[in-house]
Task: structure prediction
Amino acid sequence: MKTTKTKFSFLFPLLAFVLFLAACSSSDSSQEDQPATGEDSSQEQEVTETTSSLNPFTGEAGGVENPVIVVKIDNVNPARPQWGLSEADIVFVEQVEAGLTRLAAVYATNLPQKVGPVRSARISDLEIMEQFGTPAFAYSGAQKALLPEIAAANIVELAHGTSGGVYNRETTKPAPHNLTINLSQAAPTLVGVSTPKDIGLVFDETVATGGTVTSTFNAKWPASRVGAEWDSVNNGWVIALDSAPALDANTNAPIFANNVVIQYVNQGDSIYKDSGGNFTPLIETVGSGNAVVLRDGQRFEVNWSRPMASSGTSYTLAGTPFAFAPGQTWVLFVPTTYDVTFEP
Result:
């Protein structure tokens, strides 16, 4: 695990520009292999949120009765800006072939009408999804050899080509970077899908203290970069993809994360390859190790533990559960030998 310092100050001028674009705009109404076979009578109208009313994915109200839907999303330049990422509860970043990354975005609180670009599944998706019970999985094909593994997984398939009219090809990007899914339309059709459950996250809206003040970070894969810059005005991390501020194509607004987890993992080659002969990485998300959690403009060195695939991941600081800020969380699975830089 390498940790050094880097400058990332170019994001703020770019962010000011994209915020201007967002204010002027309105919401927009390598491996696509094989398709997958009473009224309140009390005098005081005070509402008190109970623990059970809070979504265990975000620590905020909403979505507790909605289905959990995981969408596999493209993360290369022709796919950006992606649709609907700002409305995800959790976004996982995974390495794929040739050193690139893709995203597995988890939705429950919000079910946007346009999410994507939807791309093909990978073997590591299956282990990541086990912690959610029986989620729906939206994806567009997979290697032929992987299809039996997907069919045997504890998921409800929401695959392109087998899920009716919930998918659409957008005209603003070229294929295969233009496939979107309407989660609001898909949700009522789903049967047997889990609702949000505890996956190990603990939340506290109190501003964290005791961390190392951090303005930016940058995680590096062989052919991909994911970073962020702290925005104290909006109280969030402005996500950057390949060193440019990430936008949501539905709004043209920047994507803000309340928490970012840099989870150091072991990673090797799976038995699967892409059409170019590149091995598909196999990410070990079950086990334990070190992580860095960023919230409130600070970073905290923590430990992570996930005893089995069906359990969530706990994050502890000096043996005590670490509290996340309520809101969206990005989890970056970074191999222990890769570079992550922080400033200051």
About this structure: The chain has a mean pLDDT of 89. The first strand starts at residue 2 and ends at 5. The chain is about 10% helix and 35% strand.
